[in-house]
Amino acid sequence: MHSRHTVTAVVTGKPLNLGGSRGRPEATGRGCMIVIQEALKLIGKSPEDTCVVIQGFGNVGGMAAKLMSQAGFKIVSIIEWDGAVYNPNGLDIEKLFAHRHETGSIREFPEGEDIDREEALFLNCDVLLPAAKENVITSHNADKVRAKILCEGANGPTTAVADAILAEKKVFVIPDILANAGGVTVSYFEWVQDRQGFFWNEDMVNSRLEEIMVNSFKDVVAFAGKHNVYNRTAAYMVALDRVAFAIKLRGIYA
Questions:
Q1: CATH code assigned at 138
Q2: Half-sphere exposure of 56 toward its Cβ, with a 13 Å CA cutoff?
Q3: What Rg do the C-alpha atoms of the chain give, in angstroms?
């Protein structure tokens, strides 16, 4: 408005007709799925053999549940603010979306059992995806986690003390700085497209997102192994290493 002409790149997450990017609504959930798939390769499991518990059924958790269900994952429980639903054989996510749309809640879903939302976090599963709020896994409950992989879809769902407890339990933690980076990555794609004035199809958006997420995952895991640190620490180390290297290349007066 100040420039007196359209500068669409200053804001991301826009509607498509205003210069938004295809694939943006699903991006954070898709990014979570991508890094989970990479983590499963490390333990020799396939999506079809993987049970998942997801906390949150909104833009991140809901999208992740939808995409992971389509990819063959068995989503055994969804946790929301007012309760949790469980089906050991896997929930029909599309039907659960429809049920919530009709009733306003995931509770009393005909094809699932209502269970306590706190207990649902500690179900026996392969993947736990907290995608709702911070400080969910703490020093008081980290020892109860029964998942092999914990993927942080939300910001800060695991406390620092809980990190150490999970490490002792050999839980593979995918930190939020990596796991939920899909959204900001596609926001960057949106900025690039707006600057170019040329917009990509959804396949291009998704393939470039997958490339970045996979490479980032491998870099973090490699740093963690090389320096014998947690994945979260490794993610920070990768980031700082890149910044320091760029500063060194640019020189003092660049």
A1: 3.40.50.720
A2: 22
A3: 19
194/60 Cα distance (integer angstroms): 24
Q: Residue 12, CB half-sphere, CA atoms under 13 Å: how many?
A: 19
Task: Give 10-residue mean pLDDT values along the chain (254 residues).
Answer: 82 94 97 98 96 97 98 98 97 98 97 96 98 96 97 97 96 97 98 96 98 98 96 96 92 71
Q: Which domain holds residue 72?
A: 27-179
User: In this structure, what are the phi and psi dihedrals at residue 49, rounded to the nearest 5 degrees?
Assistant: -100, 15
Structure token digits, residue 239: 């980031």
**Residue 40 placed within a domain:** yes
Q: Compute the distance between CA of residue 103 and CA of residue 194 in angstroms, rounded to an integer.
A: 39
- CA angle at 123 for the pair 165 and 88, rounded to the nearest 5°: 155
Q: In this structure, what DSSP letter does residue 90 have?
A: -
For the whole model, what pTM was predicted?
0.94
Number of domain units in the chain:
1
Q: Which residue has the tokens 């406390």?
A: 159
DSSP string, 129-176: EE-S-SS-B-TTTGGG---SEEE--SSS-B-HHHHHHHHHTT-EEE-H
The pLDDT score that the predictor gives to residue 4 is 84
pLDDT of residue 253: 67
The enclosing H or E element of 183 equals: helix 182-196
CA angle 79, 81, 83 (to 5 degrees): 55
CB neighbours of 15 closer than 8 A, spacing ≥ 6? none
HSE (CB half, 13 Å, CA atoms) of 234? 22
Residue 131 lies inside a defined structural domain of this protein: yes
50 in any annotated domain? yes
Asked if residue 186 belongs to a domain, the reply is: no
